[in-house]
Amino acid sequence: MEIKEIKAGELDPKKFVKEKVEEIRKIVGDGKAIVALSGGVDSSTTTLLGHKALGDRLKVYFIDDGLMREGEAKQVASTFKKLGIKVRIVSAQREFFEALKGKIDPEEKREAITQTFYRVIFARLIRAIGAKFLFHGTILTDIEETIAGIKRQHNILEQLGIDTEKEFGYKLVEPLKQIRKDGVRKVAKALGLPESIYNRMPFPGPALAARVIGEVTPEKIALVRQATAIVEKELKTEGAFQCMAILHNDRVTGIREGKREFGLQIEVRCWDSRDARTAAPTEVSWITLIYKIAERITNEVPGVVSVTYNITPKPPSTMEAV
Ligand code: XMP
To answer: Out of 170, 249, 276, 314, which could bridge 213 as a Cys pair, Cβ 3.0 to 4.6 Å?
Structure first.
């Protein structure tokens, strides 16, 4: 079915919230639902809409898949506690690393993450509390890119013809699927979410696994996590749409303390974009790149001897590497 887009410029966020709350109540009736909150603007907005409509009948989980950034679980739980919403942290690192073992193809890696979320983790949570619905922060751009075959976004199911009720035992509720990132930010603000959330940089569902080229292992995730923290901190003042560190699979020859070191490579990307459909590299200052980012990454992230900056726009690049 064709989805009717609501453009950010035409969006009346208060009216949107009212309509979605009514719609959710109609769909869920007196049943229970779950939502997986990552702390990003899409899942946070979905959680708040769901909570407004259903109160405690919506159970909120943070899935710790081992692929998230430094300190993310605690930060998300504490932000939502302040909003009166209890977040339960689910430990699922083992399941995700097991599913990713030996996989190098980007789409296979994405598929392994999707299956682990939907078939294993969400199905288990749904059964445990007797819920029938899963709330989802899917936005229009996710749907379009998946349908176009560019990248299988981790959260696209129904639009690919997957009957979630038959396959996994629950129905999806996707209140944001008519809007894009800029629209979601307006709704998030209208719902009273803090600026740290409504202006938060996007972070992909497959998390740091989207930034490890080749096989994803706990060791590689630890390296990219460290590099990500440096990149996000040093580029904070750029006001970019998104910035990231990517760990390459190939090694290159470097020198450390006068000796040859066949080391790792990190690629830095920093994007200007309005809605993630197209993007251009930010003109980051040379000083920031060389003296802050390259120096810190090569000094602090073990084994890295080379740091590069991506200068390609989207298209032909995409924003994430995987
Ligand atoms: P790409 O790499 O497709 O990224 O140019 C466009 C935007 O989407 C984010 N992204 C994802 N978001 N699930 C998500 O929720 C995903 O599987 C996914 N893959 C990419 C990416 O971070 C960027 O903002």
So the answer is: 249
Q: Which residues of the chain have pLDDT under 50?
A: none
Res 149: pLDDT? 80
With a 6 A CB cut-off, is 106 part of the ligand 1 pocket?
no
Contact 266, 245 (CB under 8 A): yes
- 224 close to ligand 1 (CB < 6 Angstrom): no
Question: Cβ contacts of residue 175 below 8 Å, gap of 6+?
Answer: 20, 23, 24, 46, 49, 50, 135
Distance 204 CA to ligand 1 centre (A): 5
Question: What pLDDT, in 10s, does the model give residues 105-133?
Answer: 999 999 999 999 999 999 999 999 999 99
Pocket lining: 267 vs ligand 1, CB cutoff 6 Å: no
Q: Which atom of ligand 1 is nearest to the CA of 321?
A: 2
276 Cα–ligand 1 center, Å: 8
- pTM score > 0.70 for this model? yes
Q: Pick left, alpha or beta for residue 235 (phi over 0 → left; psi -120 to 50 → alpha; otherwise beta).
A: alpha
Q: In angstroms, rounded to a whole number, what is the distance separating the alpha carbons of residues 140 and 151?
A: 14
pLDDT in tens, 53-104: 999 999 999 999 999 999 999 999 999 999 999 999 999 999 999 999 999 9
Report d(CA 87, CA 50) in Å as an integer. 14
Tokens describing residue 142: 């996710």
At 1 the pLDDT is 67
Of ligand 1's listed atoms, the one at least distance from the Cα of 139 is 15
| Whether residue 145 has its Cβ less than 6 Å from ligand 1 | yes
Give the closest residue (by CA) to ligand 1 atom 4.
319
Residue 145 is predicted with a pLDDT of 82
Is 111 close to ligand 1, i.e. is its CB under 6 Å away? no
- CA-nearest residue for atom 10, ligand 1, is 204
Question: For residue 282, what pLDDT is reported?
Answer: 97
Residue 59's beta-bridge partner residues?
Answer: 34
